[in-house]
Structures are given as structure tokens and as C-alpha cells.
Design brief:
Layout (H helix, E strand, L loop, with lengths): L2 H13 L17 H10 L4 H17 L2 H4 L2 E5 L7 E5 L6 E7 L22 E10 L7 E10 H12 L5 E4 L17 E5 L3 H12 L12 H13 L2 E3 L12 H12 L1 E2 L2 E2 H8 L4 H12 L2
Parallel strand pairs: 3-4
Antiparallel strand pairs: 1-2, 2-3, 4-5, 6-7, 7-8, 9-10
Helix pairs in contact: 2-10
Amino acid sequence: MKTYDIITLASQYVTNLAGHKFDVLDIAKPVTINSAVNLSKVISKLSPFLGNLIEFNTVEFLNQQENFSDFGRWERQDPGFPDSIFVGDIQPTPGLEIKAWFPLATEITARFKDSQNHFQFDQTYVAMLAWLPEKVIYGKPYILDVCVVSGLSVALARDTHYHNPPDYLVLEPEDTTQRTANLQQTNTSGYKFQGSTDELFAAQKMVDSWGAEGKIYKPTQEYQKLLRELLVRYRYRLDTNFAKMDRIVHPGVEAFKRRVYNVEASGLKVREWKKLLSSRREDEVRKSLQEHLNL
């Protein structure tokens, strides 16, 4: 097998997890309607913990598939990117970045900062698994839907969405190839212009001087040098929200979000549960929990 074959096969297996229950934890059914209301207020606090369990068990699930056994096995990298790699004789090394998303809590907060240069062989894919407890607020974790997309496509979508010089700059990491593995940098960063109107006008003239394709993002050293000249000459702030998966406008991720919010779970669509449980209308929450969850 080649890298493409391994990563494609893994993507198919992970995609087929939609509808799967993970027997990693079972949230007990509330004994009263008041305890159910209270649980609905705090269930999102379990999201990071259960999300990590789902990520761990997805790797175990892949290792149970016989198609991989002759070529190697999937292993977690913690810390490291991607968080799961295929260890064997396949080169370049296939990788999966696995992200679990609890759609009642918030947007997809996972960030994707790695440079386009990291994916020159398109060897790493991103797998997002949306999950809920079987009965919305109790039961075992249940996979609503899965999205698997190439890491290169995510990096391209991110850079295309954010990059808008001189107003917004996406900068590649400095060359750290001579450093030890734990000190090498592969993450891009986003910077927002903070200068005056006159300074922005002057910066725009500088960008115009780069030519017709001067605003097209390139991860090359030559183009990055131009961007860093802007960063040195004018005031910019580091954007701490840069590269959130929910905001990069990747077509596959956007379609995934729409599908998840339209999934029916215990009588209501996920977006309806999200709106209901995030509201302060406790009487309406109590009524819906009683009606749809047999409490």
C-alpha cells in the first residue's frame, strides 16, 4: 500500500462511524425532571473529557481493522501533530488529526494552524466526529456524523479566507529545520492591521507595488519576506482567534455543520436542542425534556 491508500482507507472507516456508539462512558438517566434540567446546564462540561475518549477509541477502532495489520498500526502522538500517525513502512507517514465536536456546546473551536508546506504530499487528513449522548443529555456517546477532509485543503481554505494584505496577514513560521524535533515550528499565525487610516493607505500602496498577483497567498520564503516587511513597518496585533475550524469557510466543513445541526435527536433537530438548552426558558426546557426524553 501507498500513503494515499492508507489514508483513504482510514477515512472510509472513520466516516462509517456515523451512527456508532462508543462504550467509553454511560451518563446515567436523571431520576427527576429537576435533575434533568440541571444536567442539561452542565452536560457541555463533559465535552473535553468525552471528546478525548472518543479520539483515543477511534485510533483503537482503526487498529482493529485487518486491512492495516500487514503494513503497520495507528498510534497516538501526544503532544504532536497530527495526533494519530500510521507507524510502519509506509512513507511519507500517513496521519489523522481527530477532532470530536459536541454541537450543543459551541462552535467547532478546534484550530488548524499547520503550514501548507507541511502537507506537500497530502499525507495528513482531518477527521471531525460530531457526537451527543444517546438521549441528548444522558446515555453513551453517539456519533451523529463524520467529516474527513484533507489537511492540505483545510490549510488552503484557511489561508485564502484570512489572507488580505495589508489589512490581514497570514505568516509562515520561521525556518526551524536545524532545531531538534521538539523545537521545530510548523504553525502559521494571523495578524490584524492596527495602524491609522493614513498608514493603511500607505501600506496598500506598498502591496500594490507587488504586482497583479501580490495579494495571492504563497507560503514561499520570497512572498513571506514581503509580508514581514509590512509587519515590521506597521502596527499589527496577533489574532488569537486565528484558524478556528468553524471560521475558515471550508466547503466540506460547512456542509458537515449543516448536516449535524439538521440531524434529528430524540424528537428535535440538533439546532433546536442547542437553541432550547442555551436559553433561560426553564419551563420550556423542562417541558421538552419530559416530552422527548421520557423523564
